[in-house]
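B., you asked whether I could sanity-check this one before it goes into the benchmark set. Here's the sequence:
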Amino acid sequence: MAANGLMAQLRTIAQAVEVLPEVRDHLLKLDEHVAEMSAEVSRMRQGVDDLGGKVDALNDNVGGLDTHFIGLRADMAGLDRHFRALRGTLAPIQSALAGVGKLGVRLRGSNSG
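And here's what the prediction gave me:
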């Protein structure tokens, strides 16, 4: 009886050992992928570090721009008021020119008929 138990255990061990080559192959493939991913992560880390340096340089270069833009909104609002006044001044001239253009079309139309 003990021999049967021992044989059953040996059979179980033999079946488990049969899959070891397949497990080895999978582990080798995983190892290759991990190596590839490690290299990719290193390249990405280098890219991120390079980008971080560029962002730092950009921040250094634009750091003083805020002082140049103080009051710009008020200046633009003042220009907008002047443009509205200019449009109001030019409106009658535009209307007159439009009328002259229509007169020219009418005159040319009467000459061709």
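One thing to flag: The two ends are 127 Å apart (CA to CA). Otherwise nothing jumped out at me.
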